[in-house]
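Duplicate of earlier report; M28 family metallopeptidase input re-posted below.
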Amino acid sequence: MKHPIILISFAFLLLFCKSYQKENKSEITANPETYASTITAAELKDMLYTYASDEFEGRRTGEPGQKKAVEFLKNYYESNNISSPIAEGNYFQEIPEDYFKGDTKASENVVAYIKGSVKPDEVIVISAHLDHIGVSKNGDINNGADDDGSGTVAILEIAEAFKTAEKEGNGPKRSILFLHVTGEEIGLYGSRYYTDEDPIFPLANTVADLNIDMIGRVDPKHEGKGNYLYLIGSDKLSKELHKISEDINKKYFNLEFDYTYNDDKDPNRFYYRSDHYNFAKNNIPVIFYFNGTHADYHRPSDTPDKINYEFLETRSRLIFHTAWELANREERIKLD
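Output:
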């Protein structure tokens, strides 16, 4: 017969183990594939058909259609109980009219976040621009389904996946900022305002920016060749970030990563032409995800019916997995 003190001690040990497991559930049971699978082609399509509809009038910076777009984003975050880092119910980082050149009216970035459970002061930024080029002089609406409706709805689905994880006790260790910037099409104004004028989180605490600008289509080079992405900037400031990105892809997806536009001598200079650049110039490691240009680029024909939603789903899941790794690894990535 066992001594009663031993039995009591054993019972306490079991209770302690169960309690420890519960407190450290994210380290023991969290599987990112569970949450990545919540990012679906059907949901992406449903949102993009609204976001890139004629109702939003091409989302030109400061114009009524762009104001409808930011309300759409705000309502999404509120309905999913994803908080703002500014104040409760305030998802708009206001940018005054005098910040813009020309006759552009005042506009706003849209921001939401999930607070890190272990290192809340360290932040992963996932960005995309919410604006497009508006209505042509002949009255045609430039819906911008790929540019950058695709990146916008990808962020919304990624945010929902992280929120689902948080609800189950598997929230990210580092904070995740979902940053929808305005004024990209007229000069990267929204991202520059965030980095240079009003960084909501200190730039020194910003681990990386994953920037999504056009990930819903296939360019002529890759037609009929399966899923792919152009990656730009991943190795320019942190070789460790580049390796993580490669490893995540090989582990879960095995897409073709095309680094053509990452070449410093590439005449397109895409590295300098999207919102990640305002982070990179501040020595924050970046990855720019891009599907390349196509015949509908900056034309009224960039419509939701031409998006490859299966590709968009996989690409969005890839970015989620990369953000998950950056948010949950023990050490923040190193700057070269």
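The chain has one domain: 33-328.

Merging into the original ticket.
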